[in-house]
Automatic annotation (TrEMBL), chains A, C:
Binds 1 [8Fe-7S] cluster per heterodimer. One of its GO terms (cellular component) is molybdenum-iron nitrogenase complex. Residues 70-490 form the Nitrogenase/oxidoreductase component domain. Tetramer of two alpha and two beta chains. Forms complex with the iron protein (nitrogenase component 2). One of its GO terms (molecular function) is nitrogenase activity. The lineage of its organism: Bacteria, Pseudomonadati, Pseudomonadota, Alphaproteobacteria, Rhodobacterales. This is Nitrogenase molybdenum-iron protein beta chain. Its cofactor is [8Fe-7S] cluster. SUPFAM superfamilies: Helical backbone' metal receptor (SSF53807). Belongs to the NifD/NifK/NifE/NifN family. Residues 1-56 form the Nitrogenase molybdenum-iron protein beta chain N-terminal domain.
TrEMBL record, chains B, D:
This is Nitrogenase iron-molybdenum cofactor biosynthesis protein NifE. Residues 46-446 form the Nitrogenase/oxidoreductase component domain. It comes from Phaeovulum vinaykumarii. PROSITE patterns: NITROGENASE_1_1 (PS00699). Keywords: Nitrogen fixation. This protein may play a role in the biosynthesis of the prosthetic group of nitrogenase (FeMo cofactor). Gene3D superfamilies: Nitrogenase MoFe cofactor biosynthesis protein NifE, C-terminal, Nitrogenase molybdenum iron protein domain. GO terms for molecular function: nitrogenase activity. Belongs to the NifD/NifK/NifE/NifN family. Pathway: Cofactor biosynthesis; Fe-Mo cofactor biosynthesis. One of its GO terms (biological process) is protein-containing complex assembly.
Length: 506, 488, 506, 488
């Protein structure tokens, strides 16, 4: 073996050394049951054919590589944005590990959540004792200011009633009577993480607002939604609001939660919206959601308590940001400040400067429903075509809305909407109707490798690149950073493929 | 769950091959070796997770999870098992059951159609169908569905009945082993049998670790006929009944499978480790001795000794440049059961001081061994909440934490370097040269200038108080909790 | 030909079509004087050998692909940062076109500068009439608030005395007597653009400060230096100063000059430091320069007028930013605010999170002297090795300082400093002693292509990527963006080369 | 400067082949065709720049600039000439003279050593040595240095004496042509001569434009024996005395070279353009007619007509889908001399309306032709300051500006699309299909949704006043300046 202390190879390189190559080839020859390589190639090519595509799209029972996560993940994320809040997942013991891993890998930060760890006994007798003991233990172990309870499938299938269970737990003094324990039912077999986010947001707000006396005021609440770029985006949102002289309550502010410093202090809880802010939020005049599909039920509840509501679809780019800021200005009764006008001008200037490279590019966009809508609109603003818009967790209503968006622009002609499809569907779609770029999350890297279409990571989760979420994609300045990612991808490809056109100036 | 599964769980929990289990009274034995779960604490993996860990490395199989999205949709391709062939195991297949399908009892029909679709569109060597909490609770019986599908489509369809709520990750490992034994082992015959055929059980080829050892076995002419499941092909499980010896690598997770192979096919097994130079040599010696007892030519012993001498010399020479850079460094270990003692041993060979090791997943036997190796029980501790781990890292003044990914950020906040030695690691550490890799990783972690900068107060802060004098630290006395802070 | 209206190819693709390929091959066969391709390959390989390296490094008369520009470019850049200032280059007609192009291509913004357009007559009779007429025309045509005069080689060789020429021009009423016409002698055959920046800064400050009465105060002046990321960096600098509650005068603020919006208004002049601010700057207690090599003479002048001075070398990363902020805090008598402490913690956290990928990487860094010093220090902070540090415009003093920096860290052991070398030298150096990454400017793309070493563009000029300069690399948050660029490069390479190690999680 | 150069400049300025020049009186002729420079205005390129533009496309030559850094160090590889072979021309070679070397008169010695180094380390087909302002002013004589170096090293070393201060870019083009004629042309013989051998002078293969035409010539059997300098090799200049016909592409820049080839070697030349379908066809017709007159077989004429018919039909068909997208769009042109009329013609073929064209670099002849094509002088204008161009773009309500890079940002600020048609463009627009490319670029520019968004007021602004009615615009009456706002 070639290993030596002077040149220790990590496994990406180690197993490319000659003797490992030989060993691996032997393995393939002896244990693969030896399909000839030309047959393997033939089959692989067939899986990129229209024939395979038809078969693939006809798939109805099997889901392959879905671009969505489950409700409890969204609930844990929503709860994390409230100060001192511990997520408590009522269900089988193993599920919460996934949520913690998913969030930790994307944000590169600790992600705290606990489980009621139900076993077979609970399947027979119900989960009350697990929840009662669990709340007591969580409260004692972690000293939270709030415990937000969500469910996994098991609790739903056996029919656990969280509301009465929590009442019972307080009677048994697992937690003090006035200690906030909001809850939401979040079975994985309904909807996706965006629904879980919605349910938990509604659960938390209900816990404080239901039955409380409202003194209508002029305040504004903003619900960011489930957002992999929440750290950078919420900070940018606050900066823009500051420039406008507007104060608003961010309902679930994870920007500090998922970006704690290394300064010698361990923060199990850092930042987040305070309980006082939640309570005061009841009196707001308006609650604005930045992601419609993450907040349908929550906004309905806000209307029930007497607030005006508005929602956006992950406002990105010129038009998206314009509309959002105009709404804020309208509700708050302020003007758009010169500083933001300049920022808009700079974004438009950047688009104009680079339009020769942006116009006519084609994209496949996959991810959460709001994000896909936003990104499709933004690429059309640049003269690009969002050829394929896919949301595994997209509904029929979402599909209709997306089709209307595409129909509103000549650059949307011939583009297709794929609601409910997964990334294996997308592989067939792109193998037969390619696009220049993929926009989505880390799971798209298999498509990038397989089909040679560059991937731009702009959605949750991003596991294989670091720290992108610390910079905004919201706002005019955030939109420029999206444009830069797209342009860098275009130029990198130009340079990689160029021979006589390897130009110094682009 | 079904009576069949209930009985199987009870049987698995009463593992005759487990020395610890044999020493228990009947009541304790019935309870099994699972730690008591603590509601309200951070929970770790479940039985489904354990089964998936054990079986996903079978690379040419389509792993189809019969569940709502969560169990697999959130987590596909999140392990670091490496493959020399098919990538099929990295694809996330699920029936993604919806509420309507659950309420209406349509799960089994959907499963059958999903199996058809996966076979038609992916041509796997086999399909492993995993049950989960939801499908078990609503009464979907995957066994007859798999049987019918196998008959209909001509591809093996193996039921893995592992709803998460039945128990721990360790239990899931065992249930997976039972399923393989029941449905797969013995269903194919090797083209040739040799006196050098072995099974390796419990290695998952994380970051290609199996491949750091295989060249050694190749040099000795030893063939890995059966594998559960590192870089495995379905055929390598189907044929494992023809091996001469079984080596069990992960000390307890799949012992039931090793025992069954011995009972049914007369294949003796031993437990060994490839972590650390001494353990690697010991494992090779034991393996060769057993092969010779089972009919391999006697010269295998001498060839093995020659190989061991050569490799040990080479490895120790390669390690020497690192020794001055890591000797005396203080290591805190927070890992699973078998790694607790095998890694301690390996690190001590390198002159490092292990200031603490978690025993939360260790068996009594593991703990005894650790006490022997470390010469004291003062360094053993149970689970820790993040803030307690943080305090321990500082109190023990560890230079490096070796653990899995979810402790990473606690270590970093405590300004302590961290090396990933768990299932998601990116570098292989097995075999003789695996130690070189591990040393390099530790060296790079500890000697990164970042830590000096990080620990140096920011220029606007007052200098820190002088360091307290070193006193022996009894980690076992630290305030902690038996709550299960599952890390992997 | 394959051209059709449905698929118009740009030239990067057009000339890869079969018949063009054939045509081009014919051209090579018939007109290349037919060196056999194996001989071409042999020679090409030889140019990457140690033997060629020795010959290349022995080169003393020929400069190939220098990584520096000339003095007047720096002067034009410095002047651009003052409100309403027009650069006037006294020299031959052609030179100013280069400066305008260079700046326009990097910043994607108009770059205004004029020339005295001397011809042969001036070579014989001197350039006085060109300067007199030129100032009159420039003043009438462009209505500037200030005209900053610099020189090219011709004016220096014929010995034009700018001071007396300007006095004469005012006597002739080319411009009003009190109209500011600062000047600097900036021959291209002395130093480089960083010296031109220094000379012009000194010229401008002298124009207002020399002979003026000083009323010593507590103010702070900051000289940013020649900086391709000036737009983002100066804004970040202002933001950090704002967080500290410190007001400072930026002497030459190009952040708005080179980032004008597209909003329907043409701004020939936008932003920049005002004349009043310059005048008031005389009373500052301290002038701090962010780039030592761009400000040696200027800081000497500041000391002459009674100010304290301090200089940094393009402060980047943890230590660089710490030192700079501590200096500001000391001079201004303020504390470092909690918000900046958190930012530092986040940067350290990002480095810690990614250290497994950063530690041990090797770099070749080329560019301006201050930048190379800063980048070398920062990569060593990450556990990387700055194997080759090259500044074509680096002096012996710079080389010594860089060697001291390298000697201060174990990660600098074995690293080399290349003062005065060009990018063709660097090609030989890297062909024989490779590094993992190149850090520099767009001219490095030939090395990237030739040697397969990825390039990270962090220095002026960046001609072939767009809008990078709109985001800071200064400050703690700016340092994270540098880290992200490095990590993305590392991960992109890992993914491109990976087979069995094509991992979802990094 | 040297007397020799002074005399050469005077001779070049008195170009017998230039009709404009012949119509001048003696005083005007002596002044030459250069525009009067305006001190204090934005200045354009110099003679050195012009020479470099003409010669840099010789791809296998090392272009060595004898100067302080500025002349080449700031700007190497900044043109879009494309090469089918060597990339040597993209490397920036300079003697980078320092103050000490200038003061001490060491420039010539350094130049000699630099020539040696470039030959030893780069093995160029030849070295072109350019003088500049500084080296000319201090009296460095590059001619004997080049001669000595050529003798010493056995590689052609060609002096190009073009200090910037001697005049304009156009003058630099001509001086470059003189140098080639004096030192290079006729120094090599082609292996074979054919009746189809031609020279093309004045095409620089920007973005590969020459290659859009060459396949047409190839189909007719016409060989580009000599090239100045698109995709040229040194040999293609050395052998150009053996061509039968010269086509001059850039209408005035290198006419002196074409004339000398005619006077000395009897090679007739004509001026043509490959911009636009009609011009391309006219150029091919003229070329073939002249070749036949010079001895090519007469069937060339018929073959050319057949090719033209086919290509024109194909091109017009390809253009039709674009016509509805661009017809009626208003174009403002701000380009160099010859492009003024050839591009106007091309665009009108497409149904576009040219609302203005700059004539700042046009000759009187160019202006006459433009007036003919456009039917009025109202659309011609001289140079414009940026803010005036900005106003013109808005007043003329141009839909697109076609110009070089330095006007780009003015257009964008005026919210007018911009298409690069100058030397730095990235797309080729020559020949029949070049029009398709140009249309595509215009279409993409004009129809990018960005412009609608950009022109739509921000939602917080009041709606704009209704647009003023369209009235004929006399751009020539606009306040402007004769100051040289050099754009390329």
């Amino acid at each position: 073996m070639p290993q030596s202390a002077d040149k220790v190879l990590d496994h990406a390189e180690l197993f490319r050394e000659p003797e490992y190559k030989e060993m691996l080839d032997n393995k393939r020859a002896k244990f693969e049951c030896g399909h000839p390589s030309n047959m393997v190639t033939e089959i692989a090519d067939w899986t990129k054919s229209w024939e395979y595509r038809e078969k693939n799209l006809a798939r109805e029972a099997l889901t392959v590589n879905p671009a969505k996560a489950c409700q409890p993940l969204g609930a844990v994320f929503a709860a994390a944005g409230y100060e001192g809040t511990l997520s408590f997942v009522h269900g089988s013991q193993g599920c919460v590990a996934y949520y913690r891993s998913h969030l930790a890998r994307h944000f590169k930060e600790p992600s705290s959540a606990v489980s009621s760890s139900m076993t077979e006994d609970a399947a027979v007798f119900g989960g009350l004792s697990n929840l009662v003991d669990g709340l007591a233990n969580a409260y004692a172990l972690y000293s939270p200011k709030m415990i937000a309870v969500s469910t996994t499938c098991m609790a739903e299938v056996i029919g656990d009633d969280l509301n009465s269970f929590i009442i019972k737990a307080k009677e048994k003094e697992s937690v003090p009577e006035d200690f906030p324990v909001p809850f939401a039912h979040t079975p994985a077999f309904v909807g996706s993480h965006v629904d879980g986010y919605d349910n938990m947001q509604k659960g938390i707000l209900s816990n404080f607002w239901k039955g409380a006396e409202r003194t209508p005021g002029e305040g504004i609440n903003i619900i960011p939604g489930f957002d992999g770029f929440a750290v950078g985006n919420i900070r940018e949102l606050k900066r823009m609001l500051g420039l406008m002289g507007v104060e608003a309550t961010i309902l679930s502010d994870v920007s500090d939660v998922y970006d704690t410093p290394s300064d010698g202090e361990f923060r199990m809880y850092a930042g987040g919206t305070t309980i006082d802010e939640i309570k005061e939020g009841l009196n707001a005049r308006t609650t604005i959601s930045m992601q419609e599909y993450c907040s349908k039920k929550t906004l309905e509840f806000c209307e029930e308590v007497g607030q005006e509501t508005a929602s956006f679809n992950y406002p990105l780019g010129v038009k998206g940001t314009d509309e959002f800021l105009m709404k804020i200005a309208e509700v708050a009764g302020v003007e758009i400040p010169e500083s933001l006008r300049l920022e808009r001008g700079r974004l438009v200037d950047a688009l104009a400067d680079s339009q020769a490279y942006l116009h006519g590019k084609t994209y496949a966009i996959y991810g959460d429903p709001d994000f896909v809508l936003a990104m499709a609109q933004f690429v059309m603003e640049m003269g690009g075509e969002p050829k394929h818009c896919l949301a595994t967790n997209g509904s029929k209503a979402w599909a209709k809305k997306t089709e209307e968006l595409l129909a509103s622009s000549p650059f949307g002609q011939g583009c297709q909407v794929w609601a409910g499809k997964d990334l294996w569907h997308l592989r067939s779609i792109l193998a037969t109707e390619p696009a220049d770029m993929l926009i989505g999350n880390s799971y798209g890297k298999y498509l990038e490798k397989d089909l040679g279409i560059p991937l731009i990571r702009l959605n949750f989760p991003i596991f294989d690149r670091h720290h992108h979420h610390r910079f905004p994609i919201f706002g005019y300045q955030g939109a420029i950073s999206v444009v830069v990612k797209i342009l860098d991808t275009i130029f990198d490809k130009l340079d990689t493929e160029a021979d006589i056109s390897f130009d110094l100036t682009r | 769950m079904s009576e069949a599964l209930k009985n199987q769980v009870a049987a698995v929990l009463n593992e005759p091959a487990c020395a610890t289990n044999r020493s228990k009274d009947d009541a304790a034995r019935k309870k099994g070796c699972t730690k008591q779960l603590t509601p309200g604490a951070a929970a770790g993996g479940c039985a489904f997770d354990g089964a998936m860990i054990a079986l996903q490395p079978v690379t040419d199989v389509a792993h189809l999870v019969h569940a709502p999205l969560a169990c697999w949709g959130n987590g596909y391709d999140n392990r670091g098992s490496a493959s020399s062939g098919s990538d099929l195991y990295r694809t996330g297949f699920t029936t993604d059951l919806s509420e309507l399908e659950i309420v209406m009892g349509q799960g089994e029909k959907k499963l059958f159609r999903a199996i058809r679709e996966v076979i038609e569109q992916q041509s796997p060597a086999a399909v492993f169908v995993y049950s989960t909490c939801t499908t078990a609770l609503v009464g979907d019986d995957i066994v007859p569905v798999c049987k019918a599908a196998a008959e209909r489509f001509g591809t093996p369809v193996i039921p893995i009945d592992v709803p998460g709520y039945v128990g721990s990750k360790n239990l899931g490992n065992k249930l997976a082993g039972e399923a393989l034994f029941k449905y797969v082992v013995g269903t194919m015959e090797p083209e040739v049998s040799t006196p050098y055929d072995i099974n390796i059980i419990g290695d998952f080829n994380l970051s290609g670790e199996l491949w750091q050892v295989k060249p050694l076995l190749d040099k000795l002419g030893i063939r890995i006929l059966g594998s559960v499941a590192g870089d495995a092909r379905y055929a390598q499980i189907a044929k494992m009944h023809r091996a001469r010896v079984t080596m069990l690598v992960c000390s307890k997770a799949l012992i039931n499978m090793a025992r069954r192979l011995e009972e049914t096919y007369g294949i003796p097994f031993f437990e060994g480790s490839f972590y650390g130079i001494s353990d690697t040599s010991a494992a090779i010696r034991t393996l060769c001795a057993m092969l010779v007892e089972r009919g391999a030519p006697a010269d295998l012993i001498d060839r093995a000794e020659a190989l061991i001498a050569e490799e040990e010399a080479c490895a120790r020479a390669a390690l020497e440049p690192f020794r001055p850079r890591v000797a005396g460094k203080r290591v805190l270990l927070y890992t699973g059961g078998h790694k607790s003692w095998s890694v301690v041993s390996a690190l001590q060979e390198l002159g490092m001081e292990v200031v603490g090791t978690s025993v939360r997943k260790a068996t009594e036997e593991d703990k005894t061994r650790i006490a022997e190796i470390m010469g004291t029980e003062a360094h053993m501790f149970e689970n820790m909440a993040p803030r307690d781990m943080y305090a321990a890292l500082r109190a023990a003044r560890a230079d490096v934490l070796m653990s899995g990914g979810r402790s990473q950020f606690v270590a970093l906040k405590a300004r302590v370097p961290w090396v990933d030695v768990n299932q998601e690691k990116h570098e292989p550490y097995a075999g003789y040269m695996g130690m070189v890799n591990l040393l390099d990783a530790i060296d790079r972690a500890i000697n990164n200038p970042l830590w000096a900068d990080l620990r140096t107060p920011a220029p606007w802060d007052a200098p820190p108080a002088p360091a307290a004098p070193v006193t022996p630290l009894d980690l076992s006395a630290m305030a902690g909790t038996r709550a299960d802070f599952e890390d992997c």
